[in-house]
Amino acid sequence: MSRTTSERIDTLFRIDKICAIGFVVVLWASVIYVFVSVSPFVDDMNVKIAIGAAGAAVLIFNTASIFAMLRHYADDKEDIYGIDIRHKDALVALKKSGRLDRQLAE
Questions:
Q1: Which of 9, 15, 16, 82 has the fewest C-beta atoms lying within 10 Å of its C-beta?
Q2: Distance of CA 21 to CAs 55, 57, 63, Å?
Q3: In terms of residue numbers, what domain contains 41?
Q4: Is residue 83 part of a domain?
């Protein structure tokens, strides 16, 4: 069964969205883990506050940028993913025709 271009675009966007959200979750877990692991070795409370503030800034700005990227992708997904789909379809057509093998051999 052949899927429409719109369905393929939605699938690619959904995969990118899952990966981006997964990255944010891993980022938060990593920064929190590092803060908790390093805290016992830091005696000065001002340094702990500075480390916590820096980690919080990294988390806030990276999370905001990832969600802004997802909003941009959602607005322009036909343009962004349409190009990828056209190139993939062209590559599949070249492979089926055997022309790709001849071009690679040259």
A1: 15
A2: 18, 18, 9
A3: 5-77
A4: no
